[in-house]
Design brief:
By secondary structure, the chain is α/β, with parallel strands linked by helices. Helix content is 27%, strand content 20%. The chain has one domain: Spore Coat Polysaccharide Biosynthesis Protein SpsA, Chain A, CATH 3.90.550. Its EC number is 2.7.7.43.
């Protein structure tokens, strides 16, 4: 079984009630639910939340929320890893064997079903030793070029050194965009996410990689959605 987990805590501080706040006339979480439903059956989709209010909003779409997440797994310090394991254990306690988990965060509303299908196809065709697929975008903050750190003498130096003299000759560097993660459940049961090494990328364009972390991000994505023909 492929389980799709959509995490939606109720305690957002930067943007209160972020997951159900209206973005371009519909709750933020609806964008991710719609993307998931274009690829998977409802019984494969699990919204993991500690909030009765979020449950009410989600179930208005006809998608049933199977459980309410324990409060200790919904704190600021709770990890994605513990939330995922809780969801996996719930489904396996019902007799289902979960082999892979697709994690879709509501804060990436421009990620769509086609991205998910392409990422899943790439993951399924990959080497059996792959532990995780993560969606990425090419970073503008290249550590060989613009990122610097202060050394012990108080002087700035590049984070990573290179003999290249032209930016276009530098190694390609990526950053996680938070839109899609696919996990091998066997690996997830054996080790912590921080110890995963066999990770492959699914590259996405910048315009689809927008992630909501603060009010400025929200306004930017709202603008992009209003420019629908350009997305």
């Amino acid at each position: 079984m492929i389980l799709v987990v959509i995490p939606a805590r109720g305690g957002s501080k930067g943007i209160p009630k972020k997951n159900i706040k209206s973005l371009n006339n519909k709750p933020l979480i609806y964008y991710t639910i719609e993307a998931a439903r274009s690829c998977f059956n409802d019984d494969q989709i699990c919204v993991s939340t500690d909030s009765e209010e979020i449950i009410d909003v989600v179930e208005k779409t006809g998608l049933r929320v199977p459980f309410i997440r324990p409060s200790e797994l919904a704190t600021d310090t709770a990890t994605s890893e513990s939330m995922l394991r809780h969801a996996i254990n719930f489904y396996e306690s019902k007799g289902q064997i979960v082999e892979h988990v697709v994690l879709l965060q509501p804060t990436s509303p421009l990620r769509n079903g086609e991205h998910i299908k392409q990422a899943l196809s790439l993951y399924m065709k990959s080497n059996k030793d792959v532990e995780m697929l993560a969606s990425v975008k090419k970073t503008d903050a290249n550590p060989y070029y613009v990122l610097v750190e202060e050394n012990s003498m108080g002087y700035l130096e590049k984070c990573m050194q290179s003999t290249s003299t032209r930016r276009q000759d530098l190694p390609a560097v990526y950053e996680y965009n938070g839109a899609i993660y696919i996990y091998n459940v066997k690996a997830l049961k054996q080790k912590a996410l921080i110890d995963f090494q066999n990770i492959i990328k699914f590259e996405m364009d910048n315009k689809y990689s927008a992630d909501i972390d603060d009010p400025l991000d929200w306004k930017w994505i709202e603008f992009l959605l209003n420019q629908e023909n350009d997305i």
